[in-house]
Design brief:
single chain; about 240 residues; TIM Barrel
């Protein structure tokens, strides 16, 4: 598939929840993270909450920022460029994650804006990121996205190809890969997919495991997630795709 197509248009912005609802949702998610970690005999501090604020306007994100949340995830480069510089001017300790797919022609902007990029899944993108990291002198943490269900419609590298992509990223492009990310098939029980990702990460001594979303993050924590990506449970449902 050609990977220099324009950045996909972001969905229409969501009408933000009331500030009290956002804070309540955030606190509920934090509580469930603590509980899931403790149930698995893990330190809750070992699990980072990535609050996914895609399609949420800046005023809808402010309540979470004011409640102390500092790690956020976005899906779209252009949307993020429009709203995050001003927010970061007010909250400079924010850590911003790109959790959606990345087109190679957006690599420069992604390297400049994001602290962690979750969707590295092909050599052409690795080459583009390596070029921009060298040019900008800024190196976001990079995660390889693994298509644990080998779904043809979904981004990510097949589990059987992780070794090759990881070697090429390191040896050919000099990239430091910090971890793995996955999105299990919607209809499948998620835990076997989380377990597979954890096994691959362990085999390669990769410290970051980005897995689990609003519907399944407690199961991901049980399987070793270090980062869970939660949006709807904090900010409310997104509008349906048009």
């Amino acid at each position: 598939m050609d990977d220099v197509a324009p950045d996909a248009p972001a969905p229409q912005a969501t009408t933000p929840l009331e500030a009290t609802d956002v804070v309540a949702g955030l606190e509920a998610v934090r509580h469930r993270i603590r509980q899931a970690a403790q149930d698995s005999e893990r330190d809750p501090a070992s699990v980072a909450l990535v609050a996914v604020s895609k399609t949420i306007p800046a005023e809808g994100i402010l309540p979470a920022l004011e409640a102390g949340q500092r790690v956020f995830g976005e899906n779209y480069v252009q949307e993020s460029k429009a709203k995050w510089p001003a927010l970061r001017a007010r909250f400079p300790d924010v850590e911003l994650h790109l959790v959606g797919p990345l087109q190679s022609n957006k690599a420069r902007e992604a390297v400049e804006l994001f602290d962690v990029i979750h969707g590295l899944d092909r050599l052409s993108l690795a080459a583009a990121l390596a070029k921009e990291i060298e040019r900008v002198g800024r190196a976001p943490k990079l995660l390889i996205q693994v298509n644990t269900g080998d779904e043809p419609q979904k981004g990510g590298v097949s589990p059987s190809a992780v070794d090759t992509l990881l070697s090429e990223c390191r040896d050919t492009h000099g990239l430091a890969i910090q971890g793995l990310m996955c999105i299990p098939p919607a209809e499948a029980p998620p835990s076997p997919h989380f377990a597979l990702l954890a096994r691959i990460a362990h085999a390669h001594n990769l410290p970051i495991l980005s897995m689990g979303m609003s519907a399944d993050y407690p199961a991901a924590i049980q399987m070793g997630a270090t980062h869970v990506r939660v949006g709807t449970a904090i900010f409310g449902a997104r509008p349906p795709k048009g």
